[in-house]
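User: Some background: our group keeps a shared notebook of sequences we're curious about, and every so often someone picks one and asks for a predicted structure to add to the entry. Today it's my turn. The entry only has the sequence so far, pasted here. Could you supply the structure so I can complete it?
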Amino acid sequence: MNISRSLIVTVVCAIFACSANAQSDESQVKEIKSLSYFTTGIFNGDPIDNVSEIKIDAERVYHFFEFSGLEERLYSQAVAIYDGAGNLVTEKYETVFRPKDGEYRTWFWYDLDPEKDRPGLWHFVVEFDGKPMTEQRLDVLPADKP
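Assistant: Of course. Here's the predicted structure to add to the notebook entry:
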């Protein structure tokens, strides 16, 4: 598969972070940087490639994330996957994490099933701390005919 640099999306979002130990009542805006893309595998915690399309008969697709600029506190992240017709493919997957040194890397995966899943332009909708963060598209192609 071709490595597609165009799919690497850097999302900079502002979230309001209030620390329980804050010296002031004012919330501070913290800039969080996020790099995310699709890959066909993970090896030693690193994505093996960067894809913008995948065949419906591929076994698994990963959505990889790398965050920086995070405060040392708990964060939540959720991902929902929709097929080309807008149908929810899988329940929203949510995770809670605490970054180390302001950085955090994670991934979600989906096991493609050519018997029930349909090709099309799929949408991966990501929320960060309960707020919309990004929506990325993955072109899920039909299987090659034998």
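Suggested note for the entry: The CA atoms of residues 83 and 118 lie 7 Å apart. Residues 1-29 have pLDDT under 50 and may be disordered.
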